[in-house]
User: Fold this.
Amino acid sequence: MTTLSTSPVPAAPAQTAGPGAFRAGLGNIALVLLRRREVQLVVAILGLFAVCTGLHPQFGASSNIAFILADSTTIMIVAVGQTIVVLGRGIDLSVSPMLGIAAVSIGFPASMHNLNIWLALLFVLLIGIGLGMGNGFLVSVVGIPPIIATLATLTIYGGWQFIICGGMSVINIPAVYTNFGGANVLPGVPWLIVIGAGVVALAYVFLTRTVTGRSVYAVGNNADAAFRAGVPVRRVLFTTYVISGFLAGLAGLVYLCQIGSATSTSGSDGNTNLMSIAATLIGGTTLLGGRGGPVGSALGAVFLSEAAQALISFRFNEIWDPAGVGVLILIAVVADRKGAPVRQLFRQPFRQPAKAVK
Amino acid sequence: MSAIATSPAAPRRARVQTAGRQETTWVVTVAVLLVALLAYFCLAVPDFRELGASGILALCEQFLFTGLIALGEALVIFAGEIDLSTGAMSSLSGIVMATLWQHGLNIWLAVVVALVVAALGGAINGLLVTRFGIYSLLVTLGTQFIFSSVATAVGGNTPPYNFPKSFVNFAGTGTVGPVPDQLIIFAVIAVVVWLVLARTRYGRGLVLIGYNRAASRYTGVNVQRTLFSAFVACGLLAGIAGIFVSGFYNAARDDIGDSLLLPAITTVVLGGVDIFGGRGRMSGVIIATFLLGFLFQGLLIRGNSSLTATMIGGIVLVLCLILKIALDRRAGVRLRELLQRRFGSTQEAPAVPDA
Amino acid sequence: MSAHTGQASEAGVLSADGAVAVPARARPAGLQYEGRLLTKSFDGATVLSQVSITFEPGEIHSVVGENGAGKSTLVKIMAGIYQPDSGEVLLGDDRLAGLSPRSAQHRGIYLVPQEPALMQSLSITENLFVGILRRGRLRFNVDWASMRREASAYLDRVGLDIVPEVKAEELSVAQQQLVECARALVHRCVVIYFDEPTSPLTGKEAGTLFEVMRSLRAEGYTLGFISHRLDEVLAISDRVTVLRDGAKVLSAPRSEVDRAALVRAMIGRELVTRERVRPHFDATGRKEMLAVEDLTSQPSFEGVSFNVREGEVLGLAGLVGSGRTEVAETIFGLRPTDRGTVQVEGRLLEHRSPRICIDAGLVYLPEDRGRHGIFAEVEVERNVTAGVIPRLERFGPLIKPAPERQMAKEATEKTAVRMTSLDTLMKALSGGNQQRAMLSRWLLAGPRVAIFDEPTRGVDVGAKDDIYQLVAQLAGQGLACVFISSELNELTISCDRVVAMYEGHVVAELSGAEITDASLGAIIVGAHLR
Assistant:
């Protein structure tokens, strides 16, 4: 049996000896690494940090770093959930009120009856799962396109959040919560980001090492082929929305700890759903599914938080934040050619991919 | 986007309705519901009844701007696309008009400039979708952010209010006899949009694009130009809506549009338009505007909170879609097709089976 | 076979030194796979008619025929992708009913599709195991290590020297196809079909594939090979079955057939005596309607030139992939032109787009009717008038419905479209009637030149004749026609001249008596290169 020898991908470093070759080898590796969105984001984060600190030294203070990281945690956790949904070629526009409902649902008991923080954790997760199931039901059982389904739950849950609040707001959160929200494990490293990192790590393990997680990628790549191969497509999609709800719930608790209050518009006022999508897209996950991962989204969340903080340092009016996010989304999308499907011949100026003509 | 069953059931021909009939049925149903709804509110809600004819007509002013946005969205949705930035654009146009007026420009000129800005916004969307080939969902997600931000920036902390009487009278609360100005303007615009879509060459091309984009190119439809102008029209209509809103509330706000997007899309879906494009009647959208609008207003008058009413709007949307999907299933669309339509696949199954 | 150690059936079989050996088959040896009296119609057109075929283990059984003969449909039925209208499928002694792609795979039957359908952003390992990911100790986690080992073994088995972590999208088409083949083995399939696998491959790559097939045969797999490339079929088969127009016309061991016999069976002896539909065409005094000069669009085709006169029918022959449709699409303005010109009635068409072509009198009936031709969910009336929307009678800017309807009515009557009413949805029409409706659409545009791309595809045999008559009639009235087809007999009976393409180039032009199925058949498979 003769074996077909094909050049392995990617290109291996040069084999010849000598320092020049070594440097060439390193250069090769660097180029390969830089093609990864996660690495690009790390470079961007560090680069932006360097520039900002250079111009405003106080930007580099550990308290500022801690703030940026803590601030990014809520979005980061929601973005991880969003990423999982998007990987399955879906989208979840209802994460804002899911976060909000979680926050106020435990916020009132916490402030009025001193709800134990661990019970609060349990409750938010259950609430999140329940809300996520609503989305999952509409998308995978009924068959409504995700954009419309979650647009609808966005309003329904939003209204519900308002009803729960009953005209009041959550204030006077017990110190247990806010202390945790403000505490640092190391100078510049708040506990919140540790939670965030933990979520990212778990998501990463889920997506790379569990059968269900891999199924999400399969479904996002080609739902029809996955179905034919025996993947339980509907069940997998349902799960992604439940996870998104679950994480939105967790984010609700984190939000409460960080901000110390909650209102009937918590979650929506920070544009959480669109920020989570932005972080996901910037992080390299494409809206067409099947491609990307939670690490990129987490870095995207950090980058967005850092960029917002940078704008403040430069005295840019905060109101330009959403515009900046919008531009970043568009850049990320235009630059991400790989996620774009093969353009049909009617979408000039792109041409057909080369077919073998010998 | 249409999918063809590779293995249709044998007695299919007997079950296939003409598309026209199903669409008409939906529109008629919506119309009947509207009448039934009005009857219910008149009978069951005294406060509603006491409004009288002129009062009920005046209620329209509360929701006609949503209807305008819905008209624009419908254009884009018919073509198989979507525009999520219309809410933000309506806010922006109101703010632009108000700010220009505040800086001394004649209010009517300010209106014109605001509308130009709105059309430009639509053009940006259209350009990104046609020239760059990016999905409209993504594009308008991004531009929604951008327009919203610009609106906030331009409006500042205290956006202008208290516009000239003549303006408010015309665009906001004025009436001709018992009929509100807004209603007249809306009616005119609605008829124009309806005619354009249903009876002009342009509208025909737009709908064909929604049914099958590739085939419409093969039949000579200029897909790029048609889509581009649809987005411009959508932006323009959102802009007009923003003017109306500002006139009605006698103030311009940067967030007023946010709450209009979902009701507008609900209106389109309620009107029987297929979210994937092609199928539906503009007349359905027009009637649905009133149906949803009166539903909302009636609930408010009845005493429900606005958030409850909004929630009900969301529930209506879900129910409509469930109904549509159920109807599709009954007409023999198989699960595989539904899966493909819903999720698509990177490799499409050939429609005509090759032997 | 190596000794079993611990984890056996689920994972690969571990030998003592930890290497994974791929079991030859996990099923009982020698599974015969038989199809009996299979019949299948699509939209009223019979594609397969009472075909019986048996695939034996340890044998490469080729199914050949022209495009439209039914070979792909047959195999898809055997692999569970389509359900036969009648007939049955037996695996060994078991009758398999209600087969689906999933259950077929489960029973050990796999179809390597013409275009590999791998999940592009996933690794080879994952592609091999999608749906049957090996689970680790915790039952919900993935055992990558063992999968990678197995994947390597399977890749070796098919002769692919690549690391399994590579993403599918980084492989060439040939490699992806071999991965599909490996997938069949991973799923423990003993019956493997290859559907036109060599279309996207170079000669060398095809050779590699054949080596793999031979080695599988040696191990007793049951192999089916679908193709219209006779050279390959003759090189690799043990048994050959020929389908024509949905029926089996020949089935014999390889030793008993030669190329001539195959060509004869594919094309059909009766058709040689079939009357030409058209009277002899006299070119004198006829204006040149379409002139294509040095048309090039990389990478699909290059340097294509031909012309068509008023009232002439020019055939464009060639295999799938030879570039004919791409030429038509480029002429019609759907593809970019690298160089070359197109003239209609002597007028140069610049910056061509479909609209410009239609207005200039050049129309195109696309090959893929479903995707590029019809609007399935739209009524017939609207479908028919779709090409002439700018010319519809208007009141101001508003289209007048009555004249439009009249227009559609007359047009469909002219081409004898059979339908319940003009308001019937297009998808309810049979293939033949859909094609007639398409014809009406383009005739409404009052063309001087019409390009017909596989006009009888997916059309019943009876209706095909009507279409030939229609084309002849139109030519008789002065329409210049380009007739693209892969069915040689169609070209023989319909065309005055035939241009043959092979792999992106025009290689021959035949006229009059030169046009025979034999001569065409030889040219399009590259015989001229020998």
